[in-house]
Amino acid sequence: MTLNRISPEAARLARRPVLQAAVTAGARCGGREQYRDLLDRNRSSPPAVWVAQQAAAQMLCVGCPVRPACEELALRCGEGDRSSDDLVRGGRRGQELAIDREIRQSGRLAAAAAADGQQFPELATAAREQYTLAYTMESGTITKTGLRRDLVERIGAMAMRAADRGEAWEIAVYDTSGADATDEFAFAHGDFEVLPVAA
Fold first, then answer.
1. 145-154: per-residue pLDDT in tens?
2. Which of 14, 126, 128, 32 is nearest to 71 (CA)?
3. Are 13 and 22 in contact (CB under 8 A)?
4. How do residues 43-86 score in pLDDT, each as one tens digit?
5. Nearest CA to 105 among 11, 4, 7?
6. SS3 category, 141
């Protein structure tokens, strides 16, 4: 199914489930295994490889009909970090997304997230759930804390693909009490390949 192009204005006004549906159905990268690793940095790759990979990911996003929806979804979901350059979403680097979310558009995004939570209470509940994802690579143990369920699925799927290549191991998820919650996630059961992936 191919969706019509979505404008940046329409993406800003849309609620989060509409954005996710648009990205799932219409993203150029969605459902294509060769693009999944392109959008997230493999920590064991040299910086020069990531620069080339990042440029290729941004070129893939340029012609995507749902690029604005993907960017808006990434902003609302809290993807990207000012201190690390490790992903591309909606044609933008994670650091750019973090600056927009925390400085340039913080008021607008807070209002949009509040409206999402009022219209879809399950989103507010899901936003309060936070998990810790840990896995080991040659460079050492990587621990990501304060993750929402959807980010655990996405990053966990990436870690599982790295594990399939022999580059990661000891992948585990813990809830806020420290209990092992790995079995609650689809990526841990081998069915992560069908998860929607945002650009």
1. 878 777 788 7
2. 14
3. no
4. 777 888 889 989 999 999 998 999 999 999 999 888 888 887 88
5. 11
6. strand
